[in-house]
Amino acid sequence: MRTELDAAKAKLADAQKAAEMHGASVAELTGLNEKLTNEKTAAEKQIAQLRQASELSRAEFNELKGRVSANDQAAQSQLATINELTATNEKLTAQARISPRKLRHCARPATRPPRCARTWTA
C-alpha cells in the first residue's frame, strides 16, 4: 500500500507541475492576446485617421483641380483678348502710316473738311 501511496503522490506532483506549466502558458497567451488586441485597436484607429486624411486630401485635390480649370479658362480668355488687341493694334498701325503727299495735303488750311480725314476713320 505504501508503494501505491508513493505512486499516487508522484502522479499528484506531476499533475501539479503540469497544471503550473499550463497555468503559466495560459497566462502568457492571455498577455499576448491582450497585447494583440491593443495593437489591433491602435491599428484600426490609425486606419480611421488615414481614411479621414485621405478624404480631406481628395476634397482638396478636387478643389485645386477646379481652380486650375478656372485659371486655364481665364488664361484662354486673356489670350484671345491679347490676340484681338494685337490684331487691332496692327490694323491701326497700318492705317496710321500715311504717305508724305497725304500729310502735306492735311497740313494745308482747309475751307472744307480735308480728304485725309477720311483716311483716319476706322
Provide a descriptive summary of the structure in words.
The protein has one domain (2-119). It is rod-shaped, with a radius of gyration of 49 Å. The protein has helices at residues 2-96, 100-107, 116-119. It starts with a helix and ends with a helix. The protein has 122 residues and is an all-alpha fold. The longest helix is centred in the middle third of the chain and has 95 residues, at 2-96.
Summary keywords:
mainly alpha, 122 residues
Largest sheet: none
**Total number of domains:** 1
Number of helices: 3
Total DSSP E strands: 0
Distance between the termini: 137 Å
Name the poorly predicted regions: none
What fraction, in percent, of the residue positions are helical?
over 70%
What coarse outline follows from CA principal-axis ratios? rod-shaped
Average pLDDT rating: 86
Order of helical and strand elements:
HHH
Percent of sequence in beta strands: under 5%
What is the radius of gyration computed over CA atoms, rounded to a whole number of angstroms?
A: 49 Å
Structural class: mainly alpha
